Amino acid sequence: MTVQELPGAAAYRPTPPPAWKPRTDPAPLLPDPEPYRVLGTDAAAGADPELLLRLYAALVRGRRYNVQATALTKQGRLAVYPSSTGQEACEVAAALALEDRDWLFPSYRDTLAAVVRGLDPVQALTLLRGDWHTGYDPREHRIAPLCTPLATQLPHAVGLAHAARLKGDDVVALAMVGDGGTSEGDFHEALNFAAVWRAPVVFLVQNNGFAISVPLAKQTAAPSLAHKAVGYGMPGRLVDGNDAAAVHEVLGEALARARRGGGPTLIEAVTYRIDAHTNADDATRYRGEVEVEAWRAHDPIRLLERELTERGLLDDDGKRAAADAAETMAADLRERMNADPVLDPMDLFTHVYAEQTSQLREQAAQLRAELAAEGEAR
Amino acid sequence: MTTAAVKPASMAQALQRAMRDAMAEDPTVHVMGEDVGTLGGVFRVTDGLAKEFGEDRCTDTPLAEAGILGTAVGMAMYGLRPVVEMQFDAFAYPAFEQLISHVARMRNRTRGGMPMPITVRVPYGGGIGGVEHHSDSSEAYYMATPGLHVVTPSTVDDAYGLLRAAIASDDPVVFLEPKRLYWSKATWSPDAPSAVEPIGRAVVRRPGRSATLITYGPSVPVCMEAAEAAASEGWDLEVVDLRSLVPFDDETVCASVRRTGRAVVVHEATGFGGPGGEIAARVTERCFHHLEAPVLRVAGFDIPYPPPMLERHHLPGVDRVLDAVARLQWEAGS
């Protein structure tokens, strides 16, 4: 039978493909045309003064933390430090928007968010000091280990959120990633799984302009990173990442939506990495001082300080109190990081498996003998 | 147990039964992967699980291996015990980053705080006429990654017992299923399944005195057949089925080689940089003074897996095993 001989050919009327049906209306998923702002806009009047003051104190402390950690690399006390200077609004808002029972999935640049969440800075910096890979119990703090391979923590956040929902727990996961990370396959797979499963997870992209040296224009041709959400069937939100009040509000809405079973949200926070990628990087090779200065003028602390001062919520005493508290934290961090950590080389074999293999027992014995010989040589 | 319950069962059925029993006993066990739900898997190994336990326990995921394993990591972080199916050996490669950078290291990274009780099931190996990317033996990649257990059964009993142990393990297990043995049958009772087999122990499948064939997975039946054929040549070959590549059972392997004085390692994976090199080195280091001949390897050629019409030239068969046995310096021996 040829195509021409198909029965009913004469009466045939073309119709749309039978399997096709409309899925999701993209219009409500689209991000605002411009980053959402609160500070310096009419929306600021509605902001809770107490929240603004909390954000301010945490921002000042966060900046001091970045300065101190950077100094510790110069003193050889940290192996490396990827600074979040200029991005403190995202870090602080992320930590403060979460409930205690929620989970945070940080990248290596997000130690500040972990610290604002209540983690001891020394524990948060363990990976970067180099005495172990993770310095804290993730389950105790509900903070996943700092993730070094880009975007690979995002599917973890989706899986954890999915598991929590299956169990009936009121838990949301907040996954943090940078603009460069959005090019990774794991970013795509995580967002797709999250949307299909309607997992209670929020993705916060800090678009800080650069992936080490590569600017966003070489990273993506998307209208914005927030627009990527639409392709997965989840809402995309665009927010001024230096406006702590705006980031906190947008995160709060996304978390509430996830909590009530509305599924995931992708948030792009537009910010800027004021420091180089890490202390080992030289940013002058790929960007000019004019650009950096423009962003310094849009500093997250300055933005909030202006709002609080204008509304009479912050005076010089208040500023001094915030600065003093930050200084106390920095002094404590400096002092404790100046002590050499006590390391047991035998730990190298302890946690590879639940039960050591015979091969590892042999190798542990070898190291133990080498250590004993070293001890005798001294 | 009634004798009526004992009937021939396939390895695929035993694997299904292992997952079913584990899911029934432990509500934290979740099966996930491509086509594992409604279809029951392309090899039907997960047949009926979604129907019995619901789609939240046996989940058809989007088609994305890194996403499957990556979300399984998060589920394990929250206390679940995921059993992940990778549809074919070579389709597991997109999940390598999650496996190597996270699954294998998470326990160590967190000082034991966050173990990864994940089983990654991978149908592997050739001999089924699969076209490109459906027949790889990828075990060497997994073996080279500290933190993973690498297990592969060769019998119906072991398929059940080892998979139960893998799912119960608090460490991640890459569970390699020899796909050409999926339909191999044994007299086995699904109503009184075999015991859970501890991971990490090799077993002597055939005792012998002349030489040891060290092998695993799909090559075990090949070696058993070679040993039968060798008997007519006057060689009494011992066959050791490793069952677990990591942890490696040095004790059973070396005890056998010390008895026989000669050894051949047999596997489908490519020889260069393959498991046989590690095994031959370990045996030589530990049994040198017992050896009458160098440890030989019979492996797949160092080529990309061949098209199905040529795969029989690549796969180690009985003749190639016997040729290696013949080269074990019999005339120079005692």
TrEMBL record, chain B:
Keywords: Oxidoreductase. CDD domains: TPP_PYR_E1-PDHc-beta_like. InterPro entries: THDP-binding, Transketo_C/PFOR_II, Transketolase-like_Pyr-bd, Transketolase_C. PANTHER family: 2-OXOISOVALERATE DEHYDROGENASE SUBUNIT BETA, MITOCHONDRIAL (PTHR42980:SF1), 2-OXOISOVALERATE DEHYDROGENASE SUBUNIT BETA-RELATED (PTHR42980). Its EC number is 1.2.4.4. Residues 9-184 form the Transketolase-like pyrimidine-binding domain. GO terms for molecular function: oxidoreductase activity. It comes from the Bacteria. This is 3-methyl-2-oxobutanoate dehydrogenase (2-methylpropanoyl-transferring). It holds the Pfam family Transket_pyr. It is an enzyme of class 1 (oxidoreductase). Its cofactor is thiamine diphosphate. Gene3D superfamilies: 3.40.50.920, 3.40.50.970.
